[in-house]
Structure formats: C-alpha cells, structure tokens
Amino acid sequence: MMRDFAAAAALLLAAIGPGGQAFAADLADGAYSFKVIRGGDAIGTHTIVASHDGQDLVLDIAVAIKVKIAFVTAYRYEQTRREVWREGRLVAFESDTNDDGDKAKISGKLDGDMLVISGPGRTTKVRADIIPNSWWNPELPKQSELLSTLDGKILKVGVQDAGEETIDTAKGPVKARHYILSGEVERDVWYDAQGRWVHMRTGHGGTPVDWVLQ
C-alpha cells in the first residue's frame, strides 16, 4: 500500500548547512508513487521505496510505462534501480533498464574521490559528487551535468527557473517551483517549498506525459 502523502511526513528533507546552503537530501522512510499520464490515459507508474540502513539512505525505484495504440503496444519502458546515498552523496547504485527492447545493466560504486561506473564491456570513472537523473533530488536543478541512470553517460543540461505554480496531485493542489531542463535532458520538474518532488512532464513538441503524485 502506498502511504498517504500527507501522513508520510516529509517526502524529502533538505539538510541545511551554515548560511542556509542545502548540502544534502534525504527521504523519509516509506513508499511514494507517481501515476504516469499521457493524453488523459494512465500509461504507467513510477514508485520510490525509501529506507534507512544506519546512516545510509537506500532507494528502490521502479518505473513501468506502456503506450498502446489501437490495443497494440507501441512503446514500453521498464527500469528497476537501487541507489544508496550517504550524507547527500551517491555511494552505490544498480540499474536494470528495458527501453523498448534496448536492454542495459549498469552499476556504480564510490571509490575515493571518484564514482566507478561499470556497464557492458566498459568501466568509467566520474566525479564523486555527480547527481543522477533521479528526479526526487531537489539538488538536481542546480546541476549542469547529470549521470544517466540508463547507460552511465554524463548528460549536459541547462536549467531555467520558471517560478512558482500550483500543481495538482492526487491529494490536492500544492504550490511548487517549476524548473525547465534543456540540452541532453528535456524535462519540466516541480518541487514544493520543502524540496519535495511533486510533478514532472515530458513530451516537448508532442503529446505531454505527466508524472502525477499519488
């Protein structure tokens, strides 16, 4: 059962350092779910299950999307991912993706001041403070580079702050700040005043696809 959005306390807590600077992000233990909507039709789900193991935040993430046209599956996307965070830094992850038949498994582990990414036939190293395109993290709109959870590549992004808006969720409207990502990642993402991820939209130039918080 998905826990009630209001009763789950903070979906995401931003840890504030001296001078009010956010330096880490955390999630309260619980399960959080988005319904994926395209053209008014539900086409999938995006679920995050958060738990703590000592000082580590462990996230089990599952995305399942299926687009049908005239009862025929035109597109399918499935991903399961585990992320382990410590003091706001990604220290390990595993990702298994099926992007409409293109399958990829990658993993990463912090090694000193580098994050070592392993995938089919290759191993690469990226800076340890890189943030993946895991939309729950309110530090994401501050980045110019993101780590792809699909293939481990570095994605160049530009971010525009589009101001505060009111977003509908399954539990009612919430005020949230709207960020527009461009470049190698094109998304619209909304976070509320507490840094909670509350909405996302894709499909620039076509039919919008919305992630609606349940």
- Strand content of the residues, in percent? over 45%
Terminus-to-terminus distance = 11 Å
Query: How many discrete domains?
Result: 1
Helicity, as a percent range: under 10%
**Secondary-structure-derived class:** mainly beta
Order of helices and strands: EEEEEEEEEEEEEEEE
Shape: globular
What integer value in Å does the Rg equal? Answer: 17 Å
Describe this structure in words.
The protein has 214 residues and is an all-beta fold. The protein has one domain (13-213). 0% of the residues lie in helices and 66% in strands. It contains no helices and 16 strands. The strands form two sheets. It has a 14-stranded antiparallel β-sheet with strand order 10-9-8-7-6-5-4-3-16-15-14-13-12-11, with no helix packed on it. Strand 12 (154-169) and strand 13 (172-183) form a beta hairpin. The protein is globular, with a radius of gyration of 17 Å. The N and C termini lie close together (11 Å). Residues 1-23 have low confidence and may be disordered.
Brief descriptors of the model:
14-stranded antiparallel sheet, 16 strands, 214 residues, mainly beta, single chain, 66% strand
How would you concisely characterize the structure shown here?
With 214 residues, this protein is mainly beta. The protein has no helices and 16 strands.
Q: Can you lay out the helices and strands and say which pair or pack?
A:
Layout: E1 13-16, E2 22-26, E3 30-38, E4 41-53, E5 56-69, E6 72-86, E7 89-99, E8 102-111, E9 114-119, E10 122-127, E11 145-147, E12 154-169, E13 172-183, E14 187-192, E15 197-202, E16 209-213
